[in-house]
Amino acid sequence: MSDSEQTPAHISDKETRPAPTRRHLVAGALGAGIGALATETIHRMSPETHQETTKEQKVAPLQESRTSFYGARQAGIDTPAPAIGHFIAIDLNDDTDAQQLSRLLRILTDDAAQLTQGHAPIVDQEPELAETPASLTITFGFGEKIFEIANPRQKPPWLKPLPPFAQIDQLQERWSDGDLLIQICADDRMTVAHAQRMLLKDTRTFGTIRWVQEGFRHAYGSQKPGQTMRNLFGQVDGTVNPTTSDNSMEQVVWGKHPKTPAWEENGTSIVIRRIHMNLDTWDEADRIAREDAVGRKLSNGAPLTGEKEYDIPDLSATDHLGFNVIAPYAHIRRASPQEPQERILRRGYNYDLPVTDASGFSRHGETTGGISQSGLIFASYQSDPTQQFVPIQKRLAQLDMLNTWTVPIGSAVFAIPAGCQENGFIGENLFKPSQP
Ligand code: HEM
Description:
Elements: H1 3-6, H2 22-45, H3 47-56, E1 84-92, H4 98-116, E2 137-142, H5 144-150, E3 180-186, H6 189-203, E4 207-216, H7 248-253, E5 268-277, H8 279-282, H9 287-294, H10 331-335, E6 345-346, E7 349-353, E8 373-382, H11 385-398, E9 406-416
Antiparallel strand pairs: 1-3, 1-4, 2-3, 5-8, 5-9, 6-8, 7-8
Helix pairs in contact: 4-6
This protein binds protoporphyrin IX containing FE.
Protoporphyrin IX containing FE binds at residues 231, 233, 235-240, 273, 275, 277, 294, 296, 301, 331-332, 335-336, 344, 376, 378, 389, 392-393, 396, 402, 406.
């Protein structure tokens, strides 16, 4: 029996009583047919049982690391970024209607909620693989087609492919666009692999996989908590970012800025740029040239005008010859905001694919060959990509020394809907009658 068949169509009779979750409904169905087996299975997977087991044994840290799934906002954006991040785009079947779509979203929501808490979804055939939540977060994003099916009037005006950046783009369809995004992040690759398989089983009858981008940061425990990650150029990457310790995350990501209101309360957007990094030609640059390209030191990420990572760069400082210490083409000068709304949350992941077509050396501007297929899954979150992301990317396309070694090869934009409460589902607001 497929997941879609197991999920009842009558999911709207919740005026009088709380809507049953898919878990309850499937448990009921199983109970009627194969009672003993179902009872045993559910008992084994209940939260109480899980707690008892963990009390008896010495627990490994990642077995207890849970990030809440339910809430006003989806997790996986302003929560700390775990070591592994997979981004998956699904193309929905052409004939998908609103009822099928809401059913799919409910199934995905239920399963994501279970998995993030270290519980196996009801149809999980390898339930032991769900036992280590490892800070798992599962975040859903919607492409244009979801709005066209569910509620075209709700589609945010910015939800469309980015404008072309002709100077730098070498975009490939196999890394671009898509109808539904599933972002899966956790500190254990096993957890991610299992969650990915479970969720993709859910989508099987509703669409096809368009792309999967697998990324990583430093392993869990290899860095101090809160330490900024490094990318594969060896740079400290992520220093200047909004935070939850002041109001900046609210403004940048959740739309509490006069110029960038959120498309829906507690919703936001993600731009995913897959950027190839040519490590072969990067190897040819010496340390001074590398630091000059970005405007920061490789040792600790401090600006060239400072000593410590979080020192504020002095963009007006000049050397004894009168040249800017942070060069006119330096990445941080070009990326820093020219208007107050030009800020984004960067939460990227490195990628490093097996090399199948190694040619020894990959030349400038090439995206294949060499002994590495490496880069950045550049994930940027902001309430309005056209106001926040696009002006930065335009400036960088015009002039940025880093372009010498980097090439964007994929691009996608998704709206990230609000979170939901238990018994609800991600995206449910789209299926409510629109306000006049
Ligand atoms: C492979 C490509 C890229 C690499 C290796 C890279 C690397 C870096 C590094 C090392 C920094 C300095 C430390 C920090 O604040 O994180 C930085 C800053 C920054 N980058 Fe990038 N970056 C890349 C692409 C991009 C893109 C595509 C954008 C946006 C369109 C972007 C936007 C920014 C911003 C906004 C900052 C902070 C600037 C400031 O100081 O205000 N970067 N990047």
